[in-house]
Design goal:
The structure is a homodimer of 120-residue chains. By secondary structure, chain A is α+β, with helices and mostly antiparallel strands. Helices cover 47% and strands 15% of the residues of chain A. Chain A contains 5 helices and 3 strands. The termini of chain A are far apart. At the A-B interface, helix 2, helix 3 and helix 5 of A face helix 2, helix 3 and helix 5 of B.
Chain lengths: 120, 120
Amino acid sequence: MPTSDNAPFAFDGLDRTIHEKARLSILTSLISKPDGLSFNQLKELCALTDGNLSRHVQVLQDAGLVSITKTFVDNRPHTTCALTGAGRERFMDYLNVLETVLKNANTSPEHSPALKPKPA
Amino acid sequence: MPTSDNAPFAFDGLDRTIHEKARLSILTSLISKPDGLSFNQLKELCALTDGNLSRHVQVLQDAGLVSITKTFVDNRPHTTCALTGAGRERFMDYLNVLETVLKNANTSPEHSPALKPKPA
């Protein structure tokens, strides 16, 4: 396996479990919510269907990145999803690699400052 | 399709053609090289095998993001890959969404500044 020094653009740290678009949405939604979010909140924030959300949350749970809690609220089942400690740590590592991607893409003087302001 | 306002973490702009890890490596390598890079250079920079590089470059070419030029150097075939104008534009749009991901992940006071300095 080449090291990062040999292959500066290999981005080995871009953990595929996290990098997948829907899972990146879920993790970003959860990062600022230590108490987690309900499935319904996640569905709305991430614009995911029930099936897609369940599938991706399962992948994240299997990888130890999130925990699922099932309780009852007003006699109705209520599912909450939260980042685990390990999940938080791995997500922060991933975000550091994303920063590197942006910095690398932004290195050329021709493209610095590269990023256009987002239209309001 | 929900708008970004309704689903702030859906990250609709995370174009899957670009977001795939190997293709993100290739595009980041090319962004500062208006004259393109040879296949061998790309292979090394991105730590990709011949097969993987060819497959992902093909996807990028089919999407109109890169162009391939085949020439002869010292009587040996030489393949060069470069970003197209449209490719550059779409990649810059993608990078703006990445910035949004980082900003969103960094919003909580608990995680601000969220990103640990990379170990030297």
